[in-house]
């Protein structure tokens, strides 16, 4: 029967709920209007301190009373965290089914599984930059902080139990152990923030010290309840107010001075976390703190009580708005206010109809675990399996959306190095033409399949994401580049082509060239792209190979295409056919053209000239030719092939295929 006992081991403090309200308000304001409170993300760090303080206070008191059990502890955690969490995941998943395109839907189920396994911080550390604009399209990105907390509470109760069992030993051993853990986490945070910002931001090892600040404070107060008992009432009142004021100033300074460019958490994270600790400590010392009494007032407490639900609900609402409006740089005032209003509504419903009833009801560990963790997790795993197996369930889309969203059908290869991947006139042997490069090269697979068929040649196609069309020539720099997006696939692609140069006579190179140039998204760290590009051309020319360099297609720098494609899944989507202003990338294309003209048997295919043949570009018969702002979809790629085959005067492929 012990598992059914509910304990209330610490006194309720309204000022802590008030501090929660400050934290969640800062987070929400930062997420909706980042420039209104540039350091509002520290609200999460304040939550960490509060959590560490409260949970450690409870565990410590129960350990001293001899009533602590792991089953009881985790039953409380399950009841507190999971019911509302899985409710949010359920409704967010329902929205995902109706709103997200297949590639985004696949990513969503991955995040849902990682969040349910308390590993979303690990997942996002490998896939997303928290402050990047595209991160706003992840509806479950905010669950990373919950994962950090739950990971902390896997080992921290064990630490407290072990230290409690060693309580007969000198006190300095316990202090040394906890201090060593704190310092180790803090130093790791400083190091990782500087050298691997994503790990530094998301990792439990770089965040543990923030929770430990609250935990250490709880232990300190428990060990020193009357530390200022010798002070006069007036002196104690002044001291308490000064401590609270310093804490509030640290929080305000952090929220106003820090921004997305600040190396965080790192050493600077002590500002908001110590600020929160000071306010909590002031409230523990005395009720005379004006700041604590102010934030403990009813209006602050009302928000603080639903702060957990507010944190859970605000982000999916905002993320879906960003997803459907990728062209928007800022959230309009009325839209932001509406998101806040809906957050308050959903949070209030969650609090009164889920949190409170479950809090009052008694559960054994087994029943709580099965009902609130095991069953929801199995449902999510089942859904994720179906969505993954169904490749994002494209059948959900209307016919236009399906056509526009199709990058490459299963008939084509992409991110496949060792496969047949022969297209065009597949009966022509041996295959002496190869197309390779990144996803922009991949988007030209349908184009070259049709053109090669027309020319009566077969073509090998090897492409992978963000993989530049370079060879290992005088060195192995391209394949060993540490910043490769997909290290294994791209490295193997470069190695394969470098080792099989003698197998082919014609090499077609295609890429999003601007991506790898100075100022691009994937600039190599070990070499200059132009240098290795020229080395590749020299190498191929020296071995008497013919080379065709594909100029890049125009791209939409304003994300209008992204917006229209994402909205095309909606039943009420608007049909467009207008001519969008596209960035033709003429500068980088001219640069690549100039380089190509420096070598014999190296040719340049001007894709911009080809796209200009379509008067309604980037539409044809009301259908977009792109799958996103810069990748042709399969329909667009095949359409461009048809336009080229009608008028080949813009480029004579006879120069390349004359020997066939």
Helix and strand topology:
Layout: H1 14-32, H2 43-65, H3 70-99, H4 102-116, H5 120-127, H6 144-165, H7 171-195, H8 197-202, H9 204-223, H10 233-257, H11 270-285, H12 290-295, H13 298-305, H14 307-324, H15 333-360, H16 365-389, H17 399-405, E1 422-424, E2 433-437, H18 439-443, H19 445-455, E3 458-463, H20 477-480, H21 487-499, E4 506-510, H22 529-542, E5 546-550, H23 560-567, H24 586-596, E6 602-605, H25 607-611, E7 619-620, E8 623-624, H26 634-646, H27 654-657
Helix pairs in contact: 1-2, 1-13, 1-14, 2-6, 2-9, 2-11, 3-4, 3-14, 3-15, 3-16, 4-5, 4-16, 5-6, 6-9, 7-9, 9-11, 10-11, 14-15, 19-26
Structure write-up:
The chain has 27 helices and 8 strands. It has 2 domains: 2-317, no CATH class; 409-554 and 582-606 and 637-646, Rossmann fold, CATH 3.40.50. The chain is mainly alpha-helical. Helix content is 59%, strand content 5%. Mean pLDDT is 90; it is low at 1-8. Helix 4 (102-116) crosses helix 5 and helix 14 packs antiparallel against helix 15 (333-360).
- List the uncertain runs: 1-8
C-alpha termini separation: 84 Å
Query: Structurally, how many domains make up the residues?
Result: 2
Portion of residues within helices: 55-70%
Task: Please supply descriptive tags for the structure shown above.
six-stranded mixed beta sheet; single chain; mainly alpha; 660 residues; 2 domains; Rossmann fold; disordered N terminus
In short:
By secondary structure, this protein is mainly alpha-helical.
């Amino acid at each position: 029967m012990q598992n059914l006992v509910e304990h209330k081991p610490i006194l309720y403090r309204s000022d802590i709920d008030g501090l929660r309200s400050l934290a969640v308000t800062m987070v929400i304001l930062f997420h909706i209007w980042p420039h209104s409170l540039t350091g509002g993300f520290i609200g999460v760090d304040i939550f960490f301190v509060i959590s560490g303080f409260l949970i450690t206070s409870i565990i410590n008191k129960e350990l001293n009373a001899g009533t602590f059990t792991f089953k009881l502890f985790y039953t409380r955690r399950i009841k507190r965290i999971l019911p509302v969490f899985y409710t949010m995941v359920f409704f967010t998943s329902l929205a995902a089914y109706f709103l997200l395109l297949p590639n985004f839907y696949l990513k969503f189920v991955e995040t849902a599984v990682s969040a349910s396994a308390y590993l979303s911080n690990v997942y996002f550390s490998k896939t997303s930059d928290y402050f990047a604009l595209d991160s706003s399209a992840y509806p479950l990105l905010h669950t990373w902080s919950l994962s950090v907390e739950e990971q902390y509470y896997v080992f921290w109760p064990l630490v407290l139990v072990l230290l409690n069992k060693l309580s007969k030993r000198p006190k300095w051993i316990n202090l040394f152990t906890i201090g060593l853990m704190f310092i180790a986490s803090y130093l790791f945070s400083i190091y990782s923030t500087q050298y691997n910002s994503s790990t530094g931001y998301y990792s439990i090892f770089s965040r543990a010290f923030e929770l430990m600040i609250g935990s250490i404070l709880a232990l300190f107060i428990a060990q020193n309840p009357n530390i200022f008992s010798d002070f006069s009432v007036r002196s104690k009142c002044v001291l308490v107010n000064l401590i609270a004021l310093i804490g509030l100033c640290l929080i305000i300074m952090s929220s106003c001075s820090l921004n997305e460019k600040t190396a965080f958490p790192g050493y600077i994270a002590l500002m908001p976390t110590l600020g929160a600790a000071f306010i909590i400590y002031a409230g523990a010392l005395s009720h005379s703190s004006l700041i604590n009494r102010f934030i403990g007032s009813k209006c602050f407490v009302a928000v603080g009580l639903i702060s957990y639900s507010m944190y859970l609900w605000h982000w999916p609402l905002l993320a879906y708005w960003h997803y459907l409006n990728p062209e928007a740089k800022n959230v309009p005032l009325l839209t932001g206010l509406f998101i806040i209003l809906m957050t308050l509504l959903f949070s209030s419903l969650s609090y009164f109809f889920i949190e409170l009833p479950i809090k009052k009801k008694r559960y054994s560990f087994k029943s709580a675990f099965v009902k609130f963790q095991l069953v929801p997790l199995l449902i999510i795993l089942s859904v994720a399996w179906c969505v993954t197996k169904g490749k994002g369930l494209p059948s959900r889309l209307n016919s236009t959306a399906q056509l526009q969203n199709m990058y490459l059908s299963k008939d084509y290869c992409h991110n496949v190095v060792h496969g047949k991947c022969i297209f065009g006139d597949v009966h022509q042997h041996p295959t002496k033409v190869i197309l390779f490069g990144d996803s922009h090269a991949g988007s030209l697979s349908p184009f070259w399949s049709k053109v090669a068929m027309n020319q009566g040649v077969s073509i090998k196609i090897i492409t992978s994401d963000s993989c530049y069309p370079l060879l290992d020539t005088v060195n192995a720099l391209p394949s060993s580049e540490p910043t490769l997006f997909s290290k294994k696939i791209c490295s193997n692609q470069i190695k394969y082509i470098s080792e099989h140069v003698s197998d082919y006579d014609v090499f077609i190179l295609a890429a999003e060239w601007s991506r790898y140039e100075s100022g691009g998204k994937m600039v190599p760290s070990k070499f200059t792209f132009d240098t290795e590009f020229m080395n590749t051309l020299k190498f191929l020319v020296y071995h008497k190979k013919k080379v065709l360099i594909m100029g890049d297609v125009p791209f939409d720098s304003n994300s209008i295409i992204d917006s229209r494609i994402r909205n095309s899944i909606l039943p009420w989507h608007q049909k467009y056919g207008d001519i969008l202003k596209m960035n033709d990338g003429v500068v980088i294309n001219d640069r690549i053209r100039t380089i190509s003209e420096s070598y014999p048997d190296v040719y340049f295919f001007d894709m911009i000239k080809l796209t200009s043949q379509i008067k309604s570009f980037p539409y044809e018969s009301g259908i977009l030719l792109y799958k996103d702002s810069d990748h042709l979809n399969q329909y667009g790629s095949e359409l461009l092939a048809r336009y080229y085959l009608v008028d080949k005067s813009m480029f004579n492929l006879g120069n390349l295929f004359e020997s066939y």
